[in-house]
Amino acid sequence: LRCGDLRVRDNPALHQAASECDEVLVCFGWRPREEGRGGGPGAENLTADWSLEGTALHLLLGEALRSLDARLRALYGGRLLLLSDAGGPPASARADRSVVDVLLELLAARVAGKQEAGRPVRAAVYWNARAEPWERRREEALEAAAAAAGYQARRCSAFLFREPEACPIFEAVGRGQHIFKAFWE
C-alpha cells in the first residue's frame, strides 16, 4: 500500500489479494527519499519535491497507519507491516535499498519459511495502480523485479474508471486529430 490506499473496505488490491490468496501480508511502503526531486524510478525529472515529508499530510499519516493497523487486527487478526525510512531508516530499510528491494526480500523470507515447512507457496504482489507518469515507472520497476524474483505481479485499478490511454481524447491525439475547436470557428 501507499499513501491514498489506507483503507480496508473498498481497497481493490486488498480485495483481489484476499480472494486469490490463502494468506495476505499487508505492507505500507513509503520512502521519502524515493519520492520528489531526484527520487527513485520515475521521479528523476521532477522539478519540485512531491514527497509528503514535512507536510500536514505527513503528520496525519501516522494516525492513518495506526487506524489501518487496528482495523486489520480487529477484522482479520493481521498487522500492517511498515516499509519506510521516514524518521530514520529501520534495520530492514537501509538507505541503499528501495521499497521494492525491501518488499521482495520480505516476501522471499516468508516464502522460504513456508517452503521449509513443506507447504506449497504461490506468491504474488498486489498494488493499486496510479496514473502519474513517475508512479507508473515505479510500478513498472516493481513488476519487473517481482517477475525476476519469480512472483506474480497484480496491478489493480483503484483511482480511475478507465486507464487514461483508453480515453477517447488520447485515441484522437494518437490518430493526429485535432481535439479542440475554437468556439468562433
UniProtKB/TrEMBL annotation:
Database matches in InterPro entries: Crypto/Photolyase_N_sf, DNA_photolyase_N, Rossmann-like_a/b/a_fold
Name this polypeptide is given: Photolyase/cryptochrome alpha/beta domain-containing protein
Gene3D superfamilies, per database record: HUPs (3.40.50.620)
Protein's organism: Zooxanthella nutricula
Domain of life: Eukaryota
Pfam families: DNA_photolyase (PF00875)
Residue ranges constituting the Photolyase/cryptochrome alpha/beta domain according to the UniProt record: 1-161
SUPFAM superfamilies in the cross-refs: Cryptochrome/photolyase, N-terminal domain
Signal peptide (from-to): none
